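lol ok so funny story. i was supposed to be doing the assay writeup but got distracted and ended up predicting the structure for this chain instead. priorities right. anyway since i did it might as well share w the group, maybe its usefull for someone
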Amino acid sequence: MSFFNTNNSQWSDKEKIVLRFFILYFIIQVVPLDWKFYRDLFSINLGELSFYDLFKLTKYVPQFFSLTGYANWGVAAVLAAIGTLIWGNVKREFDYNSLYYGLRVILRYRLAIGIIAYGFIKLFPLQMPYPSLSNLHTNYGDFFAWKIYFHTVGIAQPYEVFLGFVEILAGLLLFFRRTVTFGSGLILGFIGNVFVANIAYDAGEQVYSLYLVVIAAFLFAYDVPRLYSLLALERQTIANKFTPLFATKGIRNLRLVLKTAFVAFVILLGGTTYANYSKEPYKIPKSKGLAGTYGYYNVREFRFNNQLIPYSTTDPNRWQNVVFEKWATISIKIARPIKLDPSTGDGYFASDIDRNYESAGVGGRQYFAYTSDTVNKKIVLQNKNKNYSGEGFILQYKRLNDSTIVLSGVNEKRDSISAILDKINRKYMLFEGRRKPVKL
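and the output, tada:
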């Protein structure tokens, strides 16, 4: 019995075997069979819905035996091969046109939700934020390659928005049978480039990006013979106008319900992504910095355990310069070896200390989250690098004038610290641009 009334064309035995394998392989890879997906789904707090709760669902891929990366693909392929052998021994006729159509529908919607989700976090520039002031005062060679790539895109916010628009457009084209080839072709070129960039810059998403590329390639292959005939051989080619006729009212109603739910999910994802962008960008600390302190400061005078230490680029205790961000982060340039945070800061965290995008993948500076007590003129700093989570300072602050701050207190080892900071009013070519005269 077939779910769809179609004219069943002839499939060779080899084609049937290949289709059986791909059906089983993609079902394992695409349909949420992993219990962890449902754990995440049912743990969502609808009263405090975060866009990242929905975004995480769109990145679903199965995980077997705690394996990572392409190893899970291998397990899926082995399971699909075993299933193909068993299926071949089933004494029953199947409508392979219907099966092929059904598989393409599943893949279309899986690819659409994956690409649209990433499109939203570019359309509302969340994935690659604008570089922080601390990052602007970091030597180029102190960045991991992926951070350079993210900054390169992040400094051109309109371009990032355009990239998001392209991804969303490609995903929407997958919703309609007549435009699937255009959508999958667009994704092949776009995400294919993303895959290569992930490898070249070691950005950490090469497995998932290739996962989307493979699905797009499978969908695009449907029209490859016709495209070859039309474009390469320049022959008259008839477009495929296959339209499924659903056999029962129940199937038609189920199709409508699923499409409606899918569209509603996309709208909800878009709305929550915009809300996060406008109110609380998830990669940036949400707490505001100490009012009037934003800027770059030279450390004019520094004392460690009451001993004056002259300016030095080699002393492991001497602060060289300090940056106060607009949010509650202070970064300090210290000539001390740093064990870098190798992550990409890509998770969603409620606490500022865990929002590590600004400090991930970068050396040369120590990054501290801080809380401030404006009544008692006190700030408490905690190192954001998980390798130094026990490090921090308890400091009193005093403003001598609009451009000078005095900090004094102790570190986690009870060593006394005293620093006089002078604000340097610099012009940044990244901000100034070249469309108007700039005088330095």
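The two ends are 78 Å apart (CA to CA). The chain has two domains: 4-279, 295-432.
back to the writeup now i swear
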